[in-house]
Amino acid sequence: MKKGLFAAFAASALVLSGCAASETPAETSSAEETNAVVTGDIRVWINGGDTPQDARDYLKATFESQNPGSTLTLEQQDWGGLVEKLTTNMSGGDSPDVVEIGNTWAPGFTSALAFTDLTEYYDELGGSDLLPGFVDVGSFDGKFYAAPYYSGARLIFYSKADYAAAGVTVPSTLNEFVSNAEKLNAATGNSGIFFPGKDWYNALPYVWESGGDVATVDGGVWDAQLSSPASIRGLEMVKRAMDTSLAAKDGDEAESWVAYCTGKHSMLSAPSWAGGLLVPGDDRPCERAADDLGVFALPGLSGGAAQVFAGGSNIAIPKNSANQELALSALKIMLSPEYQSMLGAIGLVPALTSLGSTLGEGEIPAATAAAAANSKLTPASPNWADVEASGVLQDLFVKIATGSPILVAATAADEAIEAILNK
Amino acid sequence: MIAPATVVLAAIVGWPLINLIIMSTQKYGRAQVFGAAPEFVGLDNFIFILTDDAFWAVFNRSIAFAAVNVVLTMTLGTIVALSMMMMAKGWRILVQLGLLTAWAMPQLTAVIVWGWMFNTDYGVVNYWLSEFFGLDYLGHSWFSQPLSFFAVATLIITWQSVPFVAFTLYAGLTQIPGEVKEASMLDGASGVQRFRNITVPYLRPVFAIVITLQIIWDLRVFTQIYALQGLGGLREQTNTLGVYIYTISLGTGDYGMGGAISIVMVLLMSAMAFYYVRRTLKEVED
After folding, report:
1. Is the interface score ipTM higher than 0.85?
2. Mutating which of B30, B121, B125, B152 best tests the A interface, going by the most A Cβ atoms within 10 A?
3. Contact between chains at A391 and B251 (C-beta distance less than 8 A)
4. What is the per-residue pLDDT across A63-102, written as a single tens digit (0 to 9) for each?
5. Could you give all domains of chain B from N- to C-terminal order, each with its CATH number?
6. Number of structural domains, chain A?
7. pLDDT at position B79, please?
8. What letter would DSSP give residue A362?
9. Nearest-angstrom CA–CA distance, B135 and B118
C-alpha cells in the first residue's frame, strides 16, 4: 500500500510540476512587461464549409509569420448541435481560442459573459465600417464582445431547363413563386423546391411576408406569434411549398447542394456562397449543366425582395482561452481587408461594409444585394440560442411537412418558445 | 487497503455528485457556467419537473423503451449463448468473432452506418424493400414516426447489446457441471425442463447482474437516440431521459433543471436495481 501511495504522490507531483513548467514563461513575460514574445498553439473554430480554403491558408500563414514560434490550427465544426458544444468547450480549461458563432446565438453568449471584452479594439477591428446589425448582436450592456465575421443571404437557385419545361418564368411575388414550384413539380416530376422538413431558416420568410412573426416583446415579456392568424397564413404557404418537395420530410438542409446536383430538384434555397457548388466542378459531379443555373432573390408577397433570414456569423475570443493575445492577433487577421475580400469573392457579404464591391458583378452578387437589403433577424433575446438548440422550430416544420394540423403544431411551438424566452 | 481507493472514489464520483445536488437546487443557466453567482431556489426545480407533463411523457417513454430492449436483448442473448453451447468449435469461433465485431464497434459509428441503411432517399433498406419485395418504400422516412424511429433504435441497441449478454451467459453455461446435465437427460427431462430446472438456477446470479446492467444501460441510453435525432424525426416525440437531460441542460441552458432530472433518474435506477438485486438474492437463498 505504501508503495502505491508513494507512486501516486510521485505521479501527481510530476503532473503538477509539468503544469507549472509550461505556465512559467507566459507569466514572467507579462509580469515583467518585457518585449518577450508570447508563443503558443491556438485553435480557431470555424463552422461548416463556408470559409473558403484560400482564406484558411491565408489565416494560418499570416498568423504564423506574424507570431514566430506559434501555430494556428483550424478546427471545422458542424453547425448542428453547436450551441451545446460551444457551451461545454468554452466553459472548460481547454477552450478554443477563437470561435465562430451563428449571429442569432450571439446574445446568448455575450449576455452570459462568455467572451473577452473587445471594446478597446473596436476601432482597430473596423469601427463603424463593421456590419451594424452584427455589431448590435455582438454587443451587450454597452460593451463589444463578438465581431461580425460575414453575412450571408439565402437565394433561390433554379434550373433554367426545368423552368422552360414547365413554361414558367422568374416569379415576382411569393404566391407566384409557390405556384411555380407546384407547376415545376407537376411538369417535371422533380421537387418544385427542395424543402426538407427541418429547414426552418427557409420557412421563416413566408411567415414574415404574411405579416406574422416568431415572437414579439412587450414590457419584457415575450409573446410567441407563430399561431397568430397572419403567421398561420404564412405556414400554410410553407406547407404548399413543402408539398412540392421530394426531400425527406424530416431531413435537414445540410449539404443541400449535393441534393440539387442529383438533378431531382428544380429549385433550391441556399446561402449565396453555395452557387459555386451547384454546377459541375473538378472533383464534383453534378447532373446540372453549368449554364443551366439561374438565381433570384425570394420575392415578397407584394413584389420586391422578401424579408429573408439574415444569416451570418460573429467571431469572438472565449474568456477562458489561455492565449488571449495570440487569439486577438488571429481575430485581427480574420477581419483584415485581405481576408474579408476572400470571403467576398465567394459570395459572402464581408464584415467590412466598405468591401461590398468584392462581391463582384453578376447574377449572384446582384441577387445577394437585393436579398440582404431586406433581411430580418430572429427575436433579439439572450435566450434565443436556447430556442434554436431545443429543436422546437425543426419539430414544428417537420410536423407541418408530414401533414399534422398546422394550428395545433404552431400553438404547441408557441408554448415551447414562450417558456424558453421568458425563462 | 481501502483508504486510498475511498479517497479516489470520493474525489471522482462524490465531488461531481455533490455539485450536481447543489446545482439541482439552483437557478443555474449559461451565465452561471461562465462565472455568475447562481440563485438558490430550493426544491423549485423538482416541483416543476414532477408536475410537468413533458417530463412524464419522456419518463414513460424511457421505461417502455428500456423494457422492450431489455426483454429483446436478454431473449436473443440467451438463445445465442445456448446455441453456442451446441455448436462445433469452428462455427462457434465464427459466431464469436461476429459478436465481438458488433460489440467492438463504437456506438456512434454503428448509428451512422445503420442510419445510412435506413436513409430516406439513398438507404439500402428502402431500396431492397422496393426492389425485391415490391413494396412502395422509396422515399419512406423511417424516423418521422416515433414508433418506427424507436424500432430502428431498438434494432441498433439490441444488435450491440446481445454480444455482451451472449458472452456472459455462455461463460456461465460452461460452468454448469456436465454430470448434472447428463443425469437429468438420463432421467428423461425435456429441453425446456432442463433449461428451467438446471440452467436458470445455476445462472441466476449471472442473469441478475446482466439484467441489472441492461436495465441501467437502456434507461440512460443517449448516443444512439441523440445521433438518430440528428438524422431525422421529431425530438419532442423521441426524447428519452438521457437525451432529455442533455437537451434541457446544454441545449436550453437550464443546468439546474437538468441536474434535478438527473437526480430523479438516478433515484429511479437505484430503486430498480436495489429491488431487483434483493429479489434475486432472496431467490438464491430460498
Report:
1. no
2. B30
3. yes
4. 999 999 999 999 999 888 898 889 889 988 789 999 999 9
5. 56-285 (1.10.3720.10)
6. 2
7. 95
8. S
9. 15
